[in-house]
Amino acid sequence: MARLNAGAGAAILPAMPTQPRIVSVLLPQPLPEPFDYELPEGLSASPGSFVSVPLGPREMVGVVWAERGIPSNRKLKQVQSVLEAPQLPSNMRGFIERAAKYICAPMGNVLAMAMRSREALEEAPTETLVVSTGASPDRMTPAREKALAHATSPLSAAELARLAGVSSGVVKGLVEQGALQQVERSLDPPFPLPDPNRPSRDLTGEQSETSTYLRGMVKEESFRVALLDGVTGSGKTEVYFEAIAQALQDPEAQVLVLLPEIALTQAVTSRFEERFGAIPAEWHSAAGSAARRRVWREVAAGRARIVVGARSALFLPFRKLRLIVVDEEHDQSYKQDEGVNYHARDLAVLRASIEPCSVVLASATPSLETLQNAQAGRYVHLRLHARPGMSRLPDIAIADMRASPPEANRWIGPQLASAIEQTLAAKEQALLFLNRRGYAPLVICRACGERLKAPDTDSWLVEHRYSGRLVCHLTGFTMDKPRHCPNCGAQGSLTGVGPGVERLAEEVHTRFHGAKVEVLSSDTVASPEDLRSLITRMETGAIDILVGTQIVAKGHNFPTLTLVGVVDADAGLRGGDLRAGERTFQLLLQVAGRAGRADKPGRAIIQTYAPESPAIALLAAGDRDAFVAHELDQRRLVGLPPFGRLGAVIISAPSAEQVDEAALAFSNGQPNTSGIDVWGPAPAPITILRGRHRRRFLIRSDRNVDLSAFLAAWKERVKLSSAVRLALDIEPYSFM
Ligand code: ADP
Predict the structure, then answer these.
(1) C-beta of 363 in contact with ligand 1 (< 6 A)
(2) Measured in angstroms, how far is the CA atom of residue 235 from the centroid of ligand 1?
(3) Which residues, other chains included, contact 155 with Cβ-Cβ below 8 Å and sequence gap of 6+?
(4) Lowest mean pLDDT segment, chosen from 21-35, 62-76, 582-596
(5) Most buried among 136, 351, 698, 719, by the most CB within 10 A?
(6) What is the DSSP string of 580-631?
(7) Which domain holds residue 432?
């Protein structure tokens, strides 16, 4: 419940008795700016206060954005109440304004991301506990004695009765007698405090040099960005721990560590606990509302000192943010491209510039954007070249599938098959990587050639055998596999084409008898617990061959994993969007890096039909720098990111006529500006999504053009009907 703040005399605004006090309030709605409200006598609020206000027929919580000097001559609605929540700090409000401008989103939508935990704005719930007062009851009984013996520290009445083996009446009687007292305790206890002065590992020479640099940078307390570029397993985490330790020397400083969603496993939090003696606060989409409330409030109060979270943690209301680490900064999951489109790495840098604070971008395969920023001197470039101790990087070999193809309806070629045999004989583990969920990516009718599509979306249905369903991977739509072809009616003619991980596992089962095989994909590990237990099975050798999608690429260390087989290295190169080569190179290098982490040397075998493509040839040659130089040259030639900016406009409507009309109207409204190229409108590759027809524009500008402002101005000039939706995407990663 919203609580009234009856702060008599505590009013911060000058209370002119004759003039109403006006505040502008930003609401977490698709609204571009705050609305004015009158703040009634007796209520006290200042910028950052959470207030409840009427909007149409509803009451809604928003944030006071500014105090207005001039009273309005309109009759304004009144602020209903001021919430007893911590204020939204001014840096955070500045961040929301700047982020909204940059990503071309209504400010209210960005505020909504900062208010993701509604419960946090209400008072934290408490529980009633009982504890001994030291006084004796009038009459001591054996049951009372037992209860008092257990009541030396606060417990719930039920828990005390259970522990002491007495009835609840006994506990109640002791309370009435004054031998036990009731105490209220918040259900949101503070997070344990990290200790930055616990000893770190013995760092290697280059680790120690790098961490000394980062410590110095954090100490400056200004806006600085470092790219921590180190091969997989080179100790980037150990090194950024030193930067965190430095930041925490300030007893009020807070640190945010962003991780790709899937990497938020217990293994990661355990490493923080080992280094700092305390589990960090965690923020991710799977967290329940109570957990989110606790994190939000503790962050706002400045008590949560280390927060480890997925991209949306960037919108938490830190009081004194001193360091942001973006681990695996190249990871695609930092880009949100539904709802509010933003890239968490880019916004992390924006947020840091406002705080101001330091940023560490860590990766073994940094994005070209970040590498270019480092080359241009905007970011400092720190490199770790070696794995500590005995651990060596795997050798990468190419299996040319044109020269030695697999048998029909098989996907493991002879070279990879014999490497698997050798690995099993040596009692070591193998990982087979195929970035396709399910059994077969396409279902066709052998009689008429029909390809099964989702009913309301222009995408093929994927056959899943484990669940026995056909699934649309774009929308989540599922259905049973039909017995008859929906087009020609032929019976039993529908057949899956191509491999997914389930089909690959089937091949492994039939070819490597006795091997223990498991599949790791988002379908087989539905929860963090599932993932944890699978990782344990892998670590303890209960799995010989793991077949996995890109989930396996991220950060797991398996000591006896010595062979990585990439089944279809070309998969990501097809379709060929701007980043296809870059993404393939990053993903394959990350996957290959899973092999040979301990003292056993590892190897990776890459099956490809295009061994001459730069991403694959240079990966096998182990020459990342050459690949980066090649990609950058290509992009420089055509002025694409990171040498130019890109924006996308996606227009959608219920019918093809409506969307074409809207796209034409939008096209005609284009402002006249130089340094900008507009391509489109064109039908989007996914022409229909959830029943809506889609058209796209792609806009390229030079780096010195404010593309966000251009797109915002364009959108402003064109009025579209309410059936039409228009989405803007700055620096798009998806071109679908
Ligand atoms: P990255 O983040 O670069 O992949 P990690 O920090 O996860 O690397 O380190 C990889 C492995 O090497 C981890 O198990 C880590 O504990 C270990 N490690 C890193 N640095 C050292 C060191 N100086 N001494 C011993 N082990 C180390």
Answers:
(1) no
(2) 4
(3) 129, 130, 131, 163
(4) 62-76
(5) 351
(6) HHHHHHHHHHHHHTTS--SSS--EEEEEES-TTSHHHHHHHTT-HHHHHHHH
(7) 395-436+499-633
Q: What is the 277 CA–ligand 1 centroid distance (Å)?
A: 18
Q: Is the pLDDT of residue 4 over 60?
A: no
> Count of residues for the chain?
736
Question: Does 607 reside within a domain?
Answer: yes
What's at 616, amino acid-wise? Answer: I
Q: Is the CB of 636 under 6 A from ligand 1?
A: no
H helices of 35-118, in order, are 90-103, 107-114
Q: Is 388 in the pocket of ligand 1 (CB under 6 A)?
A: yes
Task: Give distance in angstroms: CA of 205 to centre of ligand 1.
Answer: 13
* Residue 80 neighbours by CB under 8 Å, 6+ apart: 2, 51, 52, 53, 54, 59
pTM over 0.70: yes
Instruction: Select the more confidently predicted residue: 153 or 415.
Output: 415
Are 285 and 310 a contacting pair, CB within 8 Å?
yes
Residue the block writes with tokens 């006896």:
560
Domain assignment of residue 1, yes or no: no
Contact 207 CB / ligand 1 (< 6 Å): yes
Q: Residue 8's pLDDT band (boundaries 50, 70, 90)?
A: very low
Residue 610 sits in the same domain as residue 512 = yes
Average pLDDT over residues 99-120: 90
The CATH number covering residue 594 comes to 3.40.50.300
Q: What is the pLDDT of residue 71?
A: 65
570 and 662 co-located in one domain? no
Question: Total structural domains in the chain?
Answer: 5
